[in-house]
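User: Hi! Is it possible to get a structure for several chains at once, not just one? Here's what I have:
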Amino acid sequence: MPSADNSPRQTHAGIDPRGPRVGAVVTSLLLASVLVLGDRAAGRALLAFVVALFVAGAALGPARSPLGLVFRHLVAPHLTPASEREDPRPPRFAQVVGLLVTASGLGLALLGVPMALTVGAALALAAAFLNAAFGVCLGCELYLLGTRLRRA
Amino acid sequence: MISVLITLAVATGVGLLLRRRNGRFRRAVSSWPDAHQAVPGAAVTLLQISAERCAVCPQVAATLGDLAARTPGLAHREIRAEDNLDLVRRHDVLRSPTVLVLDGTGAVVARASGAVTADQAWQAVAPLLATSGTRDLGEAARAQR
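Assistant: Yes, the chains can be modeled jointly so their relative placement is included. Here is the combined structure:
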């Protein structure tokens, strides 16, 4: 029986899905380092660097972000060509979610709120690790919930 | 250091739970038949609800569309969650994609969420196609293999 598919999706050029995954591995390592360093100058500086990476990822998208370029030029040449392509919008949305979480943590820590840096970095680490290890895009899962709440 | 370990342990737990749930069809009962959502003439409709920001949705749509094309009596239909928030709330759709299995009257008889495989979908719809009695199941089974 033919598929009655009134497909809601336009076709996209698509990105290599392994790109955001590798980016999540790097982000996980950085955020784990932030937690180890703790709420002092070095930890705050490293978290600020992660926030900057999220800003770039959210503004430029996964194909042109710094970690995306690192993947394309340093990692992808050593891999077999991508067997499938992925819509770049979900990983970009996830970068926005990561930005909100880490920037809130850093901002509150700078205002002197205790544990803010640890909580922010831990939440972001959990999400980045889920993406790196399980391929689960937590930001994307939250997207539908956010849509429901907004128009409830 | 301990915060890193706790975070990774919790995230691993969540990841394993989500992985286990992925594509698992559960029985469902709907008090609201969505007759207009069922594809006319199909004994079973796989109604896929996809959000716009969804990495696995295109892959699931291709898998289910392909299964429907090979299986007599089975149809696949994909709708946007954003345009159907009514339905999304009514059926408590939390994840994207969610696949609702509708019988010929549009009643929801089963559902699954996440990365549904062709095999999982087939296991869920085969008994329904058999009991609907309108189709030659042997042909459907051959089409599946």
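The longest helix of chain B spans residues 2-21. Strands of chain B lie at 26-27, 44-50, 74-80, 98-103, 108-113.

User: Great, thank you!
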